[in-house]
C-alpha cells in the first residue's frame, strides 16, 4: 500500500466518491473480507462484496490473500493507498488551466495552479512507483499573520522578488542532464477548522 494515490481515471473517481465505497476504502487501510467489513459498516455481506468488486475493478483495492472457509473461498482485500486525491485530469475537458488567464492575485488562478500541481504530482508519483524510484520533491507549509492588507501586499512583492532572485541564481538552461522543476508559491487566508 502506498501512502497516497492520485486518481486520474474518471470512472475510478466516480466509484471512489460513492459514500459506501469511500467508507469501505477507509476501512480497508487494514486487510479485510466482505464478511468482516459487513459487520464493521452494518451492511449485508452481498452488498459489501458487490462494492468491493467494483473498487477492485478500478484498482482502488487489491487482493491480499484467499483462504478456504468451509466450502467457500474468502477473499481478503486491502486499499491500494492510505488516502486518495482526485486529479483534475479526471475532468479532462473542464479541468482548470493556469495558462488561460494568469493573474497572480486571482483566487481562480491559484486554484488552477493547485489543480495542475495535483495532476502533475499524481503523474510523477505513478511514474516513480512504476520505476521503483523515489520522487524528489520539496514543500513548505506555514502560517503568517499580517497586521494589514498593505503588509500582506509588501510581503507578496518581497516574496516574489526573493523567489525570482533564487530562480535566476540556480537556473541553468544549458546544464547537461539538468532537469526542469516547477515552483509553486501560494499565499491564501487560513481556513479555520470548525
Tell me about this structure.
A hairpin with a 2-residue loop joins strand 3 and strand 4 (72-79). The protein folds into two domains: 2-84, Winged helix-like DNA-binding domain superfamily/Winged helix DNA-binding domain (Arc Repressor Mutant, subunit A, Orthogonal Bundle), CATH 1.10.10; 96-170, no CATH class. The radius of gyration is 22 Å and the shape is elongated. It has a three-stranded antiparallel β-sheet with strand order 2-4-3. Strands 1-5 form a two-stranded parallel ribbon. It has 194 residues and is an alpha+beta fold. The mean pLDDT is 91. The protein is 44% helix and 16% strand. It has helices at 10-17, 19-27, 34-41, 45-57, 107-131, 149-170, and strands spanning 2-7, 32-33, 61-69, 72-79, 81-86.
Write the layout of secondary structure elements.
Blueprint: E1 2-7, H1 10-17, H2 19-27, E2 32-33, H3 34-41, H4 45-57, E3 61-69, E4 72-79, E5 81-86, H5 107-131, H6 149-170
Parallel strand pairs: 1-5
Antiparallel strand pairs: 2-4, 3-4
Helix pairs in contact: 2-4, 3-4
Amino acid at each position: 500500500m502506498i501512502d497516497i494515490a492520485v486518481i486520474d481515471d474518471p470512472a475510478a473517481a466516480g466509484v471512489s466518491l460513492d459514500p459506501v465505497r469511500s467508507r469501505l476504502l477507509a476501512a480497508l487501510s487494514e486487510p479485510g473480507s466482505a464478511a468482516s467489513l459487513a459487520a464493521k459498516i452494518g451492511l449485508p455481506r452481498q452488498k459489501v462484496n458487490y462494492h468491493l468488486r467494483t473498487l477492485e475493478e478500478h484498482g482502488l483495492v487489491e487482493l491480499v490473500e484467499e483462504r478456504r472457509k468451509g466450502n467457500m473461498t474468502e477473499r481478503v482485500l486491502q486499499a491500494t493507498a492510505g488516502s486518495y486525491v482526485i486529479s483534475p485530469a479526471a475532468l479532462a475537458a473542464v479541468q482548470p488551466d493556469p495558462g488561460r488567464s494568469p493573474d497572480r492575485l486571482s483566487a481562480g488562478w491559484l486554484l488552477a495552479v493547485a489543480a495542475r500541481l495535483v495532476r502533475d504530482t499524481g503523474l510523477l508519483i505513478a511514474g516513480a512507483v512504476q520505476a521503483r524510484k523515489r520522487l524528489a520533491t520539496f514543500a513548505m507549509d506555514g502560517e503568517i499573520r499580517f497586521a494589514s492588507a498593505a503588509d500582506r501586499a509588501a510581503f507578496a512583492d518581497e516574496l516574489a522578488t526573493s523567489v525570482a532572485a533564487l530562480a535566476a541564481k540556480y537556473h541553468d538552461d544549458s546544464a547537461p542532464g539538468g532537469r526542469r522543476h516547477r515552483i509553486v508559491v501560494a499565499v491564501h487566508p487560513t481556513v479555520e477548522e470548525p
